[in-house]
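ok so i was messing around last nite and threw this chain in just to see what happens. nothing serious, just curious
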Amino acid sequence: MTNQATETAWADAGGTLTVAELIRVTTLTEAELVELVDYGALAPVAQGQTQLLFASEWVMPLRAAGKLRRDFDLDIFAVAILLEYLLRIDGLEGEVRSMRARMPQRQDTSE
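result:
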Protein backbone atom coordinates (compact mmCIF):
# COMPACT_ATOMS: atom_id res chain seq x y z
CA MET A 1 0.00 0.00 0.00
CA THR A 2 1.39 3.42 -0.93
CA ASN A 3 2.05 6.08 1.68
CA GLN A 4 -0.82 8.26 0.40
CA ALA A 5 -3.22 5.29 0.33
CA THR A 6 -2.20 4.42 3.89
CA GLU A 7 -2.81 8.00 5.04
CA THR A 8 -6.18 8.15 3.29
CA ALA A 9 -7.26 4.86 4.88
CA TRP A 10 -6.02 6.19 8.23
CA ALA A 11 -8.08 9.38 7.75
CA ASP A 12 -11.19 7.30 7.11
CA ALA A 13 -10.58 5.02 10.08
CA GLY A 14 -12.16 7.38 12.62
CA GLY A 15 -9.13 7.57 14.91
CA THR A 16 -7.28 10.48 16.43
CA LEU A 17 -4.01 12.20 15.56
CA THR A 18 -1.51 14.23 17.52
CA VAL A 19 -0.20 17.58 16.28
CA ALA A 20 3.00 15.84 15.15
CA GLU A 21 1.00 13.36 13.09
CA LEU A 22 -1.08 16.14 11.54
CA ILE A 23 2.10 18.01 10.62
CA ARG A 24 3.39 14.86 8.92
CA VAL A 25 0.27 14.30 6.79
CA THR A 26 -0.52 17.95 5.99
CA THR A 27 1.62 20.86 4.82
CA LEU A 28 0.90 22.97 7.89
CA THR A 29 3.30 23.71 10.74
CA GLU A 30 2.65 23.29 14.45
CA ALA A 31 2.31 27.07 14.88
CA GLU A 32 -0.26 27.21 12.07
CA LEU A 33 -2.28 24.34 13.53
CA VAL A 34 -2.25 25.98 16.98
CA GLU A 35 -3.35 29.26 15.40
CA LEU A 36 -6.23 27.48 13.63
CA VAL A 37 -7.27 26.08 17.02
CA ASP A 38 -7.05 29.60 18.54
CA TYR A 39 -9.30 30.94 15.75
CA GLY A 40 -11.79 28.14 16.41
CA ALA A 41 -11.40 26.76 12.88
CA LEU A 42 -9.80 23.51 14.05
CA ALA A 43 -11.30 21.69 17.01
CA PRO A 44 -9.30 19.16 19.03
CA VAL A 45 -11.12 16.17 20.48
CA ALA A 46 -8.96 16.26 23.59
CA GLN A 47 -7.50 19.41 25.08
CA GLY A 48 -5.85 20.05 28.42
CA GLN A 49 -3.70 16.96 28.28
CA THR A 50 0.00 17.09 27.50
CA GLN A 51 -0.83 17.20 23.78
CA LEU A 52 -3.76 18.05 21.55
CA LEU A 53 -5.58 15.23 19.78
CA PHE A 54 -7.60 15.70 16.59
CA ALA A 55 -10.16 13.54 14.81
CA SER A 56 -8.75 11.92 11.69
CA GLU A 57 -11.53 13.56 9.65
CA TRP A 58 -9.43 16.75 9.70
CA VAL A 59 -6.70 15.29 7.47
CA MET A 60 -8.36 15.80 4.08
CA PRO A 61 -9.78 19.30 4.75
CA LEU A 62 -6.44 20.44 6.20
CA ARG A 63 -4.61 19.07 3.17
CA ALA A 64 -6.96 20.93 0.82
CA ALA A 65 -6.65 24.14 2.85
CA GLY A 66 -2.86 23.81 2.93
CA LYS A 67 -2.71 23.33 -0.83
CA LEU A 68 -4.92 26.38 -1.42
CA ARG A 69 -2.75 28.33 1.01
CA ARG A 70 0.37 27.55 -0.98
CA ASP A 71 -1.30 28.07 -4.38
CA PHE A 72 -2.75 31.47 -3.47
CA ASP A 73 -0.21 32.59 -0.83
CA LEU A 74 -2.91 32.96 1.86
CA ASP A 75 -2.27 33.94 5.46
CA ILE A 76 -3.39 31.60 8.23
CA PHE A 77 -6.45 33.72 9.09
CA ALA A 78 -7.68 33.33 5.50
CA VAL A 79 -7.04 29.59 5.81
CA ALA A 80 -9.24 29.52 8.94
CA ILE A 81 -12.10 31.09 6.98
CA LEU A 82 -11.42 28.85 3.99
CA LEU A 83 -11.41 25.74 6.17
CA GLU A 84 -14.88 26.57 7.46
CA TYR A 85 -16.18 26.90 3.90
CA LEU A 86 -14.48 23.70 2.77
CA LEU A 87 -16.19 21.81 5.59
CA ARG A 88 -19.54 23.40 4.73
CA ILE A 89 -19.16 22.50 1.04
CA ASP A 90 -18.28 18.92 1.96
CA GLY A 91 -21.38 18.68 4.17
CA LEU A 92 -23.63 20.08 1.46
CA GLU A 93 -22.20 17.71 -1.14
CA GLY A 94 -22.96 14.83 1.23
CA GLU A 95 -26.56 16.01 1.56
CA VAL A 96 -26.92 16.21 -2.23
CA ARG A 97 -25.57 12.67 -2.63
CA SER A 98 -27.98 11.45 0.02
CA MET A 99 -30.95 13.17 -1.62
CA ARG A 100 -30.03 11.83 -5.05
CA ALA A 101 -29.78 8.31 -3.64
CA ARG A 102 -33.35 8.58 -2.35
CA MET A 103 -34.80 9.92 -5.60
CA PRO A 104 -36.33 7.46 -8.05
CA GLN A 105 -34.23 6.93 -11.16
CA ARG A 106 -35.37 9.03 -14.08
CA GLN A 107 -35.62 7.25 -17.40
CA ASP A 108 -34.52 8.99 -20.57
CA THR A 109 -37.55 9.19 -22.90
CA SER A 110 -35.92 11.27 -25.63
CA GLU A 111 -35.72 8.33 -28.07
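not much to say yet. The chain is about 60% helix and 5% strand.
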